[in-house]
Amino acid sequence: MADPEDGKGVEVAEGEATTYGAIPQWSPGNPKVRSRRVLLQWLVSAAALYIAALIMREFKAPWVRVSVAKLAALKSVKRLGVTIERGARS
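The structure assignment produced for this chain is given below.
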């Protein structure tokens, strides 16, 4: 499982599922990555991380699970989403 904090990523081919926390990489030599899909994945992940941080800070929650999804984000995708957990369960 990739850690989004370590700066390492994985290449994402068209139609390929990504691992939780994976950061898609693009290079001119890798045209299989779709820029719109990468942007939407990044936006959904960023929204989930922001919401989790906000809840933990405002409500002083020791643990939080946040799920964010965009329905019909792309023609070939019914739902694009992510679930993250932060903190420690007690």
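Interim note for the steering committee: The first helix runs from residue 35 to 59. The chain has one domain: 4-87.
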